[in-house]
Amino acid sequence: MTEAYAPNKRMKKVHLSDKARAALILKWVFLGGMIVFTLYPVIYTVLGSFKTNAELTQGGGFFPSVWHFENYYKAFIQADFTKYTLNSVVVSVSVTILAVATTSLAGFAMARKDFAGKKILLALYMSMMFVSLGSVTLYPIYELLRALKINKTMFALVIALTGGQATNVFLVMGFTKGIPRELDEAAIIDGCSIYGVYSRIILPLSKPILAVVALFSFRNAWNDYITSLIMTISIPKLQTLTVAVVQLKYSVNSAAEWHIMLAGASIAIIPILIVYMFSNKQFIAGLTAGAVKG
């Protein structure tokens, strides 16, 4: 009886092992396909930036036949991408700082304070997360900035890009709710005001989620095209790198210079990739904590 049962048991184990192996292979095939689809455009852009214009338009090989590093020199010097890169850095860093400051304050108030109209405000924030107005809001925003007579400054672009932080506010609010209120009470007993509780207790403990907010804000500001185009359409010297790369396609002298465009696109892609490579662990940790707490 035991001998007859043993082979069946072994066969069952082998069968389960085959299913597990098939599932593992399927998982890696899926992940490999996702990696290829994600990285291929980036790799093609970077490699294409070292090709000649003729090689790009005539459909040469995947790798450059000759590596033309001078494409980057032409992009920086002839197309003046140095100025546009500096504009992007200034705008993105400013938006990041302003977004972290405003979302941390808003999230703290939403999580810790009860005030008139809080539920209505939360409902409005929630609606902004699921209803994307997109470019519909650009005209009234531009008109408001024009009425304030700041529409022709870089500050106007920073203000416009800092808006729409509903998702980040909810992330910070959820994280703050996970911080014990006993810490607030102990700080108040020790003589801290509400601002002291925010700056000395909540802010230091919220660093993981604020890192996520900073990364989201920097990425959105760096990659933005429509808002930056609208805000700088009459002031070319304030254009960001993303706008400058696309505008290069429509300029009279550079309409067909795809190699310069790809060099500019690579300049725009590489910084955000470097930022993510060095901060991806903090990004995942902070995002997970913000999603679970509260």
Task: Pick out its properties.
294 residues; mainly alpha; globular; 2 domains; disordered N terminus; 77% helix
Description of the structure:
The chain is mainly α and 294 residues long. It folds into two domains: 2-48; 80-292, MetI-like fold (Orthogonal Bundle), CATH 1.10.3720. 77% of the residues lie in helices and 0% in strands. The protein is built from 14 helices and no strands. It has helices at 2-48, 53-57, 70-78, 81-112, 118-130, 138-147, 154-162, 166-177, 181-189, 194-205, 207-223, 226-232, 241-250, 258-292. Helix 4 crosses helix 8. The longest helix has 47 residues, at 2-48. The protein is globular, with a radius of gyration of 26 Å. Mean pLDDT is 80; it is low at 1-6 and 9-15.
Strand and helix map with partners:
Elements lengths: L1 H47 L4 H5 L12 H9 L2 H32 L5 H13 L7 H10 L6 H9 L3 H12 L3 H9 L4 H12 L1 H17 L2 H7 L8 H10 L7 H35 L2
Helix pairs in contact: 1-14, 3-14, 4-7, 4-8, 4-11, 4-13, 5-8, 7-12, 8-11, 8-14, 9-10, 11-14, 13-14
CATH level-4 homologous superfamily of the largest domain: MetI-like
The CATH class of the largest domain turns out to be: Mainly Alpha
Measured by DSSP, the beta-strand proportion falls in under 5%
Order of helices and strands: HHHHHHHHHHHHHH
CATH topology name of the largest domain:
MetI-like fold
